[in-house]
Structures are given as C-alpha cells and as structure tokens.
Amino acid sequence: MDGYCSAYLYWYLKRFYGMIGDNDPRSPVAEGEIAKNGYILAHYAQYATNTTRIAVTSGSENIDATAYINETGNEITLVLRNQSDRTLSIQIPMDGISQATAVETSETKNMETIDVNVTGEFVSLSISGESIVSVRIKL
Predict the structure, then answer these.
(1) What are the pLDDT digits (tens) for 20-79?
(2) Closest Cα to residue 93, out of 61, 131, 126, 67?
(3) At a CB cut-off of 8 Å and minimum separation 6, what does 60 contact?
(4) CB 33: neighbour CB atoms within 10 A?
(5) Measured CA distances, 91 to 18, 29, 101, 115 (Å)
C-alpha cells in the first residue's frame, strides 16, 4: 500500500503460497490454517477498511508506513512494516490521544496484541524486527 495503490487483490486464497494453507506438501501451514500472507493482509483488512489514506512520514529507512483516518476523524490507524527490533515513538500532532492499541505479526507472532504507552501527543511501543504492526489511535 506504500506504492500509492488504492486496492490490492490477491487471487490465490487457498494455496501453499497463499493466505490459507492447502494440502500441498510445500504449504508452510496445515490445510485450512492461516498462513503468514493471510495475517499480513489481515492488518489491512481489519485496520484500514472503511478509512481514507492520509500522509505519513516514518523518519526511518527501516520502517515503511501507511496511515488511515476513519470517516468521523476520531481514529487514526498506522500499518507499519518494520525491519529491525526497536522502540518506536509516534507523534500525532492533534488534540489529545485518548487510547492506543497495537497488534504485531512476525515470525513468531500472529496478530498478537503488544503493549502501547500514551504520553501527551506521543504513542510509544516496542516492536520486533521483520514484522508488520498495526497501531490504532483514538483521538
């Protein structure tokens, strides 16, 4: 989504290289189980649906970021592709952050909730390397 596309259609849902495992011996997961591709796409399906993409700057060459705002303007979502372990600080220059939550998918995690701290207009969290992280910020 960082390539300025507005939609992405992945044709191969249930294949060994798709989002759900099949009975092919090359499949990394058992038949019917969600593969990593499925969890990665789930970040966009669950966190960017019914939103409008907005501008964001990651400030790091190791993080690709996309950001979205909901229709009422009271919730911002970031979907981040991260390449190395780090503590991340996100600044939202708006009137007050009331709550923030995040989930992470990495080699060992599948859409697992991670700890988030909110201080003023900053959201901070520790994220794993080689991961996809979705952060939902309520204003």
Answers:
(1) 999 999 999 999 999 998 999 899 999 999 999 999 988 889 999 999 999 999 999 999
(2) 67
(3) none
(4) 12
(5) 35, 38, 15, 17
